[in-house]
Amino acid sequence: MDGSEIYDEQTGDDAVGGGVGDHLWLADAQRLWDLGPATVDTDADGIRDSLSRNDADGLTVFTDSDRDGRVDRITRVGTDGSVTSSTYDEQTGRWSTVRPGRLR
Question: 78 in helix, strand or coil?
Answer without folding.
Answer: strand
